[in-house]
Amino acid sequence: MSDKSDAYWRDNLTAEQYHICRERGTERPFSGTLLHNRETGIYHCTCCNKPLFQSENKYDSGCGWPSFDAPINTDAIRYLEDSSHGMQRIEIRCASCDSHLGHVFPDGPKTTGERYCVNSVSLAFQPDATIEK
Predict the structure, then answer these.
(1) In Å, what is the CA distance from 76 to each residue of 7, 62, 92, 98?
(2) Residue 67 and residue 60: Cα distance in Å, rounded?
(3) Cα separation of 14 and 18, whole Å?
(4) 94 annotated binding-site participant
(5) What angle do CA 55, 57, 60 make, to 5 degrees?
(6) Rounded to whole angstroms, what are the CA distances from 53 to 3, 101, 123?
(7) What class of enzyme is it (predicted)?
(8) Phi, psi of 12 (to 5 degrees)
(9) What percent of the chain has pLDDT over 90?
(10) What is the spatial distance between Cα 127 and Cα 35, in angstroms, rounded to a whole number?
(11) Are 101 and 77 in contact (CB under 8 A)?
């Protein structure tokens, strides 16, 4: 969980980053800069730079947001029940700083059966990066 104040986040994030990462907003579908990214590397949290996903787990789900079949490790993501907007979903957040990432759904590929649907704004991509699991 983040020990940073709301003022810190307002001062260090763009208005769009703040809205999505701290206020649980969502970018428009098919608008994210990382949606079609095919480079090899690591996707980090925009807010705290912790590694969250690897490019090898990214796939095109057709949903309009970057999709992954698994996080980089079991400790990277925090899961919360979300009943907003009249839906029952599982929200995903960065386990380190509590930044809103998106949601996970049980309709992913056969590899894991999960689809981590993530806002591009919530992620910072580092090309050609590797990390030990």
Answers:
(1) 25, 24, 10, 10
(2) 6
(3) 6
(4) yes
(5) 90
(6) 23, 11, 9
(7) oxidoreductase
(8) -110, -5
(9) 86
(10) 15
(11) yes
Q: In what order do the strands lie in the sheet with 67-68?
A: 58-59, 67-68, 115-118, 100-105, 89-94, 77-82
Confidence of residue 89 (pLDDT cuts 50, 70, 90): confident
47 is in an annotated binding site: no
Which residue among 21, 47, 63, 117 is the active-site one? 117
Would you list the DSSP string of 88-125? -EEEEEETTT--EEEEEES---TTTS-EEEE-GGGEEE
Query: First-to-last CA distance in the chain?
Result: 21
- pTM for this prediction: 0.91
pLDDT of residue 18: 97
Clarify whether 21 is annotated catalytic. no
Whats the size of the chain, residue-wise?
133
48 is in an annotated binding site: yes
CB 128 within 8 A of CB 40: yes
Consecutive H or E run containing 10: helix 6-12
